[in-house]
Amino acid sequence: MHDFLTEELENLKASGLYRTLRSREGAQGPRVRIDGKEVVLLCSNNYLGLADHPRLKEAAMKAIERHGVGSGASRLVSGNMGLHQELEERIARFKGTEAALVFNSGYTANVSVIPALVGRGDTVFSDKLNHASIIDGCVLSRAEFKRYPHKDMDALERLLSGDSPDSTTSLCFVRKSGTVPAGSRRLIVTDSVFSMDGDIAPLPEIVELAQRHGAMLMVDDAHATGVLGSTGKGSLEHFGLKSDDDIIQMGTLGKALGTFGAYIAGSRELIAYLINRARGFIFSTSLPPSVLASSIAAIDLVEDEPSLREALWEKTWYLKKGLDSLGFDTMGSETPIIPVFVGDAGKTMEFSRRLFEEGIFVSGIRPPSVQEGKCRLRATVMATHTNNDLDMALDAFLKVKKSFL
Ligand SMILES: *Cc1c(COP(=O)(O)O)cnc(C)c1O
Questions:
Q1: Closest protein CA for atom 5 of ligand 1
Q2: I need a surface site. Which of 267, 322, 324, 338 has the fewest CB within 10 A?
Q3: Closest ligand 1 atom, residue 195 Cα
Q4: Phi-psi domain of 31 (left: phi exceeds 0; alpha: psi -120 through 50; beta: other)
Q5: Sign of the CA dihedral with 267 first, then 272, 274, and 280 last
Q6: Ligand 1 centroid, distance to 164 Cα (angstroms)
Q7: In the CATH scheme, what is the code of domain 55-304?
Q8: What homologous superfamily is domain 15-44+306-404 in, according to CATH?
Q9: Which residues contact 58 (CB under 8 A, 6 or more apart)?
Q10: What is the pLDDT of residues 202-223, one digit of tens each?
Q11: What does the DSSP assignment read for 215-252?
Q12: DSSP for residue 172
């Protein structure tokens, strides 16, 4: 009955795209045990080392003692607690916006918020390298989906002016005629830090284009929250753009903040609207007390301990310079996400396997996460890495490169 499963799995294996799970023991940190072997972990989004920070653990345990482990319902039914509102106020204060709303994950936020903002007859403009959850949100919205080449502002402007019917950059979905009048809303959506390349979107230009062409703007700060900007507030701070309630800022709690979940920060009106229209908010059990309390503690720590972010950037440049000087192509990375270009999927996975043998865990990235022929190792740095960890990694990269590429 399910012959297609066997067939599809065989196809994946034959093309080097078959994926399996590896199991980690203990907390997420610079050194971990994976499948029983101790390795330097170079593929974690736990940038600031908060995932097992004592202050976060203590906050979580206290919240469990006081409020239990499960929230029991969606926010609009009986799952809304003071802690949800406390976290949202904390996020809004941190981001400098009027209000914020938490979601159960970044994936949920993107697939819920984009379809709440645009629908049939509207248009959404999306960078070609945006995260899969943004793409899924765009598709789910049924808005006309126009994709512009990575960070290409001229192409975005042409699409916004409506004079580029370029079929390679636009993906139009069939509209059911007659049922809904054509809308006129336009939304530009972009990762701020691109998750597979580690480069940064030209936000000042995008903000200007959005204003000039009357489009809404949504920025995904998943890898920027706690990382970019002089106080870790994210991409707007990085560019010296003042927090603007017209910009829809999305960010995640599960990466640099070390916990789980996501947020949208923006105007009070936007948040009220999303409470009424974002399906992933309405129809899903709310985040549990431990996650809410530890997320509040995480934001406090980002503000109280700038040394964590300083260490993260210092380690980032250390590893990036090291890789560059060994002749690797780090693909224009500007952040703690440092891709190392390989190209072919099979070779990438073999490279990753050999690094693992040398005690370095860096995952190989292949389609559908990146385009075919653009496979890479994707190293990420943590504030808690020691220079010794990173030197070990550089030695291993060099050794494997010599024996293999
Ligand atoms: C990780 C990520 C997400 C998804 O966030 P989760 O909380 O892990 O679901 C969304 N957007 C970008 C750019 C990401 O890197």
A1: 106
A2: 324
A3: 15
A4: beta
A5: positive
A6: 30
A7: 3.40.640.10
A8: Aspartate Aminotransferase, domain 1 (3.90.1150.10)
A9: 297
A10: 999 999 999 999 999 999 999 9
A11: -EEEEE-TTTTTTSSTTS--HHHHTTPPP-TTEEEEEE
A12: P
